[in-house]
Amino acid sequence: ALKLRAGDKHCLVARSKCYLKLGDTENSLKDAEASLQNDKTFSKGLYQKAETLYTMGDFEFALVFYHRGYRLRPELQKFRLGIEKSQEAIVNCIGSPSSVKLENKEDLCFISRQAESKKANQKLQNKVTMDQKWTRKQRPVRNPKTERELLGELYADKAYLEKLLKDEDLMESSTKQGIKVADLVLSGISYLDTRSEFWQQQKPIYARVRERKLRQQRWIRDKKRKPAEVGRYIVKSMEDIDMLLTGDCPEESCKKAERVLKRIQGWSDDEVPNKNELIGNLHSCIGNAQLEMGQMEAALQSHKMDLEFARQNDLRDAVSRALGNVGRVYARIGKFQQAIDTWEEKIPMAKSSLEKTWLFHEIGRCYLELNEAGAAQNYGQKSLQSADEEGDAEWQLHATVLVAQAQVKLKDYRSAIMNFEKALEKAKLIHNEAAQKAIIIALDDVSKSFIEELNKRREEPTIAFSSPDYDFSSEDTKDDDFEKFREREESEESAENQDDEKQKEDARNYKEEHGNSKEGGSEQENK
């Protein structure tokens, strides 16, 4: 982002936050200062610089920038909290300001006053140093409640160490390495005191109390979540999941569905009355996304979980949906028989003619893949019948092609040619150029196979005319079909030849007329 827009203050603040999270305070401070270079009143930059200075331990400078931000944006709570925690950190480090006493003697000249103030500063520094040493030796006793709040789980350890201090015999003993137990105990207590002071500076008590109150408020608000809010959240989430999947973002759709699933599983049945149905639906969404990503085994497991939830809760529509999806996965991974068994179980649950069209077509396609052309033709005809009932031209095209392909496998070339011609008409009707090209190629291949078969039969010697089982009518019919097909081919060729002759004649006439007009024009010019 900074390469595209160099010096963008919002990007600089964002990078400064990242540096701060990584502990790189130097680069964090550089970015925070860079964000303020062109706009000294940029509140986000002021706050980020103050936070960085506070983390570096420069509490006084941090306090300055917290104050600047607070004057500019007094409505922002974070600046006020920054001021409070900086002041508390300063007090914890150097003690209370009440310990400093200043005297003003009016009878001294300017130089003497300056020298005296310098001397007073030296004394004050010495006093502060002594105070710090004293506080290290004798730390002020904190309120046990405050101590427990600061140390948390470690409070019990400190209490145990302080209890050990009262055992004089133990304190006088030493370890095998010659270290006194008293020194070890005191070092442990000193470490815990130091950590409690550090935690108090990083997150003061008032901040902890406020955070705890906010957590309680959020918990109560979530506890009292209104049904309308739950419904809106679920509807919006399902719409987002569907939009991501249709928008070629299956990975994001899958992640979103998993997050929503985890959240809904944590809600009670009272908050979500149709909880089991929603869980199954989300498993279905996850399975569809995994299928798009090519994760076949994971998709199969997700759809089977959807099927299991649907059967457990007697949800007929959900069972139908899950069976359809499981069959799709089986077909994609080449397990055509399992796909057929799954889809055939779904047939009684199909509600519309369009759903039956799709279902019969897919079952027929699987039978075709298994080289069971008879069953494929049967389901293709069922699919075509349902498509005719629905009046869907596109599915009529798919079903007709399936029937024709099955008839090719059965070597019923005459019927296959008829159905391919019907399919070609449908493809032209819906302006599907890709389908037209594919059907023309298939029709050409079937026609060649049909001609080859008829030629072979004509070349075979006539046998067993006296046989009672010989069917003369069928042979005559095939011969008639062959003659008709040849006649149609010849008529098409003659029509093409006639068109060519006509075009050539038109061209000759046009040239003659055009040439005469040119000659006439030249004569006029000569005249």
Describe this structure in words.
The chain is mainly alpha-helical. 79% of the residues lie in helices and 0% in strands. It contains 23 helices and no strands. The chain is elongated and about 120 Å long. Mean pLDDT is 76; it is low at 105-113, 124-138, 462-479 and 510-527.
Compile the SSE list and pairings:
Blueprint (H helix, E strand, L loop, with lengths): L8 H14 L2 H11 L7 H14 L2 H14 L4 H18 L15 H28 L6 H8 L3 H11 L2 H5 L8 H22 L2 H19 L3 H20 L3 H16 L9 H18 L3 H17 L3 H17 L3 H11 L6 H17 L3 H18 L2 H17 L3 H17 L3 H27 L12 H55 L1
Helix pairs in contact: 1-2, 1-3, 2-3, 3-4, 3-5, 4-5, 5-10, 8-10, 12-13, 12-14, 13-14, 14-15, 14-16, 15-16, 16-17, 17-18, 18-19, 18-20, 19-20, 20-21, 21-22
Task: Provide the structure class.
Answer: mainly alpha
Tell me the helix content. over 70%
| CA distance, first residue to last residue | 80 Å
Beta-strand percentage range: under 5%
Overall pLDDT score: 76
Catalogue the unreliable spans: 105-113, 124-138, 462-479, 510-527
> What's the count of strands?
0
Annotation keywords:
mainly alpha
